Amino acid sequence: MRLDQFLTSVLGISRKDAKIILKQKKVLVNQKLETNPSLQIDEIKDEVIYNNQILKYQEHIYLILNKPNGYITSTEDYNHQTVMDLINHPLKHKLFPVGRLDIDTEGLLLITNNGPLSHELLSPKKHVSKTYYVEIDKAFPTDGIEILKNGIMLDGTRSVAEDIELINETSLNLTITEGKYHQVKRMMAHLGLNVTYLKRISFGNLKLPNDLEIGSFRELTASEVELLVNSKKGEE
User: Fold this and answer.
1) What is this structure's pTM?
2) Do residues 170 and 134 lie in contact, with contact meaning Cβ atoms separated by under 8 Å?
3) Smallest Cα–Cα separation from 41: which of 13, 18, 17?
4) CB neighbour list of residue 227: distance below 8 Å, 6 or more residues apart
5) Which of 39, 94, 179, 207 stands 20 to 30 A from 28 (CA)?
6) Are residues 23 and 105 located together in one domain of the fold?
């Protein structure tokens, strides 16, 4: 990889700005001052230092956001704040949310630059589960679990609840493997219920950390990335 390309990728700056900081003699490669932008380096093995900090190259970035109410799951929107407005990262312009949460839905949202993984996690053929904490306006019916596990028709196909855990009469954890428009709300509506609060608490094997405050984000740990990658259990 060219040195200026490495600086662009890690610092989130333009190629022009990378050449400027090289010309200003602010970059060391393997403890040697370097000004040549076209220098070929090993982005993993070579040590690159800028402003006395060692720069680490990441091909893929994985962030977990605890999405608050009132934000659109999009990279840009002219009428609403988007989830990307909550992200402070040097490579923010290369990142995008995986899937969608409704504007009034809270909880776990993955932000990444890994397009192929995003596609696989969202593919219906992969059967990646999503679990939601749901609050409803009336008592959950006694036959509700059986109805939803047998499946209901949505958009011309049968949508099935993979798992349902009743917490009390008006709250439950619901696990699905699809991502249809307003799916959880429509499943509850089929039972004559209105959703008053909705929060995604897991995506595949990845769970929303208890210590991640609403509106906050952080990078996934290596073990969390592995959990996420291993969430794909279906076959193409």
Assistant:
1) 0.84
2) no
3) 18
4) 204, 205, 206
5) 94
6) no
